[in-house]
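anyone seen this seq b4? input:
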Amino acid sequence: MHKVAIVGRPNVGKSSLFNRLVGRREAVVADFPGVTRDAKEGLMLYHNHRIVLIDTGGLWSGDEWEQAIREKAEWAMEGAQAVIFVTDPREGLSSADYEVADWLRRLHKPVIVAANKIDSSKHDAYMAELWGLGFGDPIAISAEHARGLDDLMERVMTHLPEDTDDVPDIAPIRISFIGRPNVGKSSLLNALTGSERVIVADVPGTTRDSVDVEWDYAGQRFVLVDTAGIRKRPDTSIEEYAIERSKTAIERSDVIWLVVNAGDIGDHELKLANLAYESGKPVIVVVNKWDLVPDEELKRAERELNEKLHHISYAPRVYTSAINDYGIHEMLAEAIKLYNKWQSRIPTAELNRWLGIWTMKQRVPNFNGKDLKMYFMTQVETAPPTFAIFSNRADFVTRAYEGYLQNRIREDLELAGIPVRLKWKEKGPYKKGKKGEDTEE
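predicted toks r here
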């Protein structure tokens, strides 16, 4: 796999270029600087090359995040085989552009200068100044209008080793961290990967966008997604967009880590749990900062978790501390286990054998002297496991009885921790036809 970093000063269109190359809107884009702070990864395929693109924050921004952003950009350079240096020639070169150029020269990496926002040939005159950066012929592009991107990638390809084998199309397991701001999502990601992949600070809202981190562990590929903290009332439009990006990350995930603060469980966690539950994805409740809970408060904290998150009581819990790595490996082990269960399929014969047992253990609902009758059960979908039950009257099914069946499915069919969906179909009872075929009465 090849690695290419995108760098530049703030607000030159790095994230727009990143989005255009990976083919989807992965990074938050806005008309003011400072939106991207972390190094964000995305995968693209180009001429049988599997390339990890890394979008970095604006360098030499002059604000309080400058040093942290530069450290993340330096991490992005480790192993990078080429660097795309994005500039905005229509604004002219600034002192920050020259600072970035000097920094890149010290790193001794192949650098391709991308002159962004060159929307047509009439703007080519702006490019002459870029020769002064010392990296050779700049490539005129427009990330917004997809101009010059093939020329740019062809130049990048000259610095990448040749691939002789076909690129394997094996999807990684995508796992998202969700939670309110400042519960330690970024710290947990860094602890899990063993590196400072994302910026961590005591200021809520440090992570503005969903940050994808590709990671290999024990032969399994993962994409770990650090989402922006979802606040009850977003302060700015950029935070509102970050919320939407977090929701999108949940929908695209295979497993969700719902990170909560052991000492602060509120209605906000309830809303996030609803969001995770409705997605149909396996949810693991990660109770972070557990080491900070005094011994005399442990039972109260457990009781609060049970009360607030009762509707996802099936979800397993992992107690962690990003500071001392407590519970970190359990997070990953639980995620892999749930991912495999989430995609499992149960034979129809086994389902119907259990259906008979369940109806004997728990009396079926009765309305005006008429019992709910369940004739047949089959699995119709995986991820999440979804089962269709054919009955005489779907409107006889009570919420309590459906919950009973879901719990029995999870316990008896080894689907503990998995959201289970039931679909009720009305159908008459079966009887044998003349030739042994099933017919409706």
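The domain at 348-440 is CATH 3.30.300.20 (GMP Synthetase; Chain A, domain 3). Confidence is low (pLDDT under 50) at residues 24-37, 198-208, 430-441. kinda curious what u guys think
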